[in-house]
Amino acid sequence: MTRRISKYKRFMMMNPIIQFFKFIYLSIKVLIVVAGGHGGTRNA
After folding, report:
1. Does the record's keyword annotation contain Transmembrane helix (predicted)?
2. pLDDT tens digit string along 32-43?
């Protein structure tokens, strides 16, 4: 178990770009949700 966690931590540490894209993806998702809420019309 500890090996798996350390491996994951090491992977994330060596790949900050992944965290960066995750942050951008989440922020864009929130923006879309907010924009959709303010739009009023739901065409989904």
Report:
1. yes
2. 988 887 665 555
* 8 backbone dihedrals φ, ψ, rounded to 5°: -65, -45
CA dihedral sign, ordered 35, 36, 39, 40: negative
Residue 44: predicted pLDDT: 55
* Cα distance between residue 7 and residue 5, in whole Å: 5
Predicted TM-score (pTM) of the model is 0.46
**Are 12 and 6 within 8 A, CB to CB?**
no
